[in-house]
Amino acid sequence: MRARSLTVVSGLLLFLTSCGAPPPPAIPPFTPPPPPPPAGPQSGPTAPGAPAATPAALSPADAEMAAKVEIKPEKVAGNVWVLYGAGGNIGVSIGEDGILVVDDQFAPLAPKIMAALRGITDKPIRVVLNTHWHGDHTGGNAFFGRNAAIVAHDNVRKRLVEGRPAVKQGNETLDAVPPAPRDALPIVTFADKVSVHLNGEEIRAIHQPAAHTDGDSVIFFTRSNVVHMGDDFVTYGFPFVDTASGGTVKGIIAAMDKVITEIKPDTKVIPGHGKVSTVEDVRKLSATLKDCMAIVGAEVRKKKSLDQIKAAKPLAKYDDLGKGFIKADDMVEAIYNELTGAKPKAAAPAAAKPLQAVRRQAR
How many CB atoms neighbour CB 299 within 10 A? Predict the structure, then answer.
């Protein structure tokens, strides 16, 4: 394991060294790709390992939504910024060595994200870290990965390469995800953890097993005293546990509890969705989910069916959390399935609606 970790880190360092010195500030080091073609039928998926195809056209609704999205930068602490937009929050380390980006939202927003970064610094983007594989966190990979090393857990690359058929979870249908093009794939992956030494601090990515997905990483900015938790912590209400991607309720609780023990009382917490938070916010959500597990677990032990448990509204005291993306019944079903071993159901394929589907999550 140690030999493998050294090989991974050495490969990343060699890549970064090969990037050379940044160009003069007057010449932006990143050239955006051409805009998508006019709206029309979407192109088919690109086979993994093949060159990236011409960007698929946006639907009129998605194009309109992308045009309205504003990327808003906010200084968090030390070297770290957060960019709010649509989809997952983007964590950013900015310093003399360049830029490290944590997640990159949707592909149509990449030029706006780049413009927001250029409003802060002329330094080049050198590393992109993905907290997990979902499109609202990896959609900009192909755009930014042309000039930067994409780093993620082994399972992030695996799931991006394979894609996924449509599945049904609770009342939600998760659209089929085609395999990602080669340009969007991580070029450095790890099994447990990896460190990037940039801008005067060690930036640690540590795997959180079977949490929001099976490829989650929490990113620790050790000197800036900031942690980016990806979707292992969110503020829009009940968290989404992607059981079809290996996620579990127990795992997401374990991820939050582990982070709580490893950070300081004043550490700033960047959630996957929502405003910068505190350790107490993380502790509160963990306690809530433990209570939900206990409540639903008591009903399961009474041999009640899922429909019977839902009808009893056992999580009524948490109705406010159910006003977000995940409803109370969805959380009941996720816990019930986990405790009883039930599997997510297959769903009929549906047209992909990347920006529209996440609109409910964007905060």
Answer: 20
Would you say how long the chain is, in residues?
363
CB atoms inside a 10 Å sphere around CB 179? 19
Q: How far apart are CA 75 and CA 81, in angstroms?
A: 4
The secondary structure of 296-342 as a DSSP string is HHHHHHTT--HHHHHHH-TTGGGTTGGGSSB-HHHHHHHHHHHHHT-
Q: Which of 108, 105, 114, 69 is nearest to 87 (CA)?
A: 105
First to last CA, the chain: 39
What is the spatial distance between Cα 157 and Cα 151, in angstroms, rounded to a whole number?
9
Q: pLDDT (tens digit, 9 = 90+) per residue, 66-119?
A: 889 999 999 999 999 999 999 999 999 999 999 999 999 999 999 999 999 999
Q: What's the whole-model pTM score?
A: 0.82
Contacts of 18 (CB under 8 A, 6+ apart): none
Token pair for 26: 């007057």
Residue type for position 145:
G
Nearest-5° Cα angle at 309, 303 to 311: 140
Per-residue pLDDT tens for 8-66?
Answer: 444 444 444 334 333 333 323 333 333 333 332 233 333 343 333 334 456 677 777 78
